[in-house]
Specification:
The chain has about 140 residues and is of the alpha/beta class. It has one domain (about 5-140): Rossmann fold (3-Layer(aba) Sandwich). The chain has helices spanning about 15-25, 60-65, 80-90, 110-115, 120-140; strands spanning about 5-10, 30-35, 50-55, 70-75, 100, 120. Strands 3-2-1-4-5-6 form a six-stranded parallel β-sheet, with helices on both faces. The chain is globular, with a radius of gyration of 17 Å. The termini are far apart.
Length: about 140
């Protein structure tokens, strides 16, 4: 098992809550931030971390989450602009070593890369999976 990490997750929707539960189950220390307190009900029973209700773009909220001590920051909100902003702040201001942001619009990936922020695009991953499935189906029909 890898060494325990302190991870801050911005957003407690389906993705953020799933990551929080899985990482918590692996023994990592997790803080989840979401402005809608009711979204914390998405967290699994395996989640043993902390939650902070507040707007992740506010510096005070990031300070309360102790982002300056984080080994990893995951921006998983449903807003590309919010993800870019908070990921950049985590990287540049708080110097978090590992910063990854969800990115819906793959055309913006170059902007994130220039800022040193790794991205995962569900849109791009889905497109790749569809293309792979089409190719696999076509090959099996030959």
């Amino acid at each position: 098992m890898a060494a325990m990490q302190y991870t801050v997750i911005a957003g407690c929707g389906r993705l953020g809550s799933l990551l929080a539960g899985d990482l918590s189950k692996q023994g990592h220390s997790i803080v989840v931030i979401d402005r809608d307190e009711t979204r914390f009900t998405n967290l699994s029973i395996e989640f043993s971390g902390f939650t902070i209700a507040g707007d992740v773009v506010e510096l005070e909220i990031l300070q309360r989450a102790k982002v300056d001590r984080a080994d990893c920051f995951l921006a998983t909100t449903n807003d590309d602009n919010v993800n870019l902003m908070v990921a950049q702040v985590a990287k540049a201001v708080f110097q978090v070593p590992v910063v990854i942001a969800r990115l819906f619009n793959p055309a913006r990936e170059a902007v994130y890369r220039e800022l040193g922020v790794a991205t995962i695009s569900p849109t791009k991953l889905s497109a790749d999976a569809f293309l792979h499935s089409i190719q696999t189906s076509n090959q099996s029909q030959v």
